[in-house]
Amino acid sequence: SVRLPTGLLLAADINDIADEIDTSLNIGAEWPLPMTAFTVRAGLVDDELTAGAGYTVGNWEVNAAWMDTAGDGEAVVGVTGCF
User: CA 68, CA 21: separation in Å to the nearest integer?
Assistant: First the structure.
C-alpha cells in the first residue's frame, strides 16, 4: 500500500500465488474526508465491487462495508476500540 500526500491510501494484494487455487488480485482505495471523522473506501475483491465507510471518535471506530458477491450483496458492520 502507499499513502499519497492527499491522504488517499491505495492498496493491492495478490491472494494464493501457489498452484492450489486461482490467483486473484485485489485492489482498493481509502480516503479520509478532510475536516471530518469519516473515511470512505472502495475496491475490487476477486473482480467483485466493494464499498465501505468508517467513522472515528476518540479511540473508537465504527465501520460498515458491502461486497457484491456473485450477484448477491453482503454487508458487514464492526466496532473497534483501541486502548
Answer: 21
Place of cell 487455487: 21
- Per the DSSP assignment, residues forming a β-bridge with 13 are 26
Taking alpha carbons only, the member of 43, 49, 52, 53 closest to residue 72 is 49
How far apart are the C-alpha atoms of 48 and 38, rounded to whole Å? 24
**What are 46-76's pLDDT values in tens digits?**
788 999 999 999 999 999 999 987 778 899 9
Cα first-last separation, the chain: 25
Q: Which three cell numbers stand for residue 70?
A: 456473485
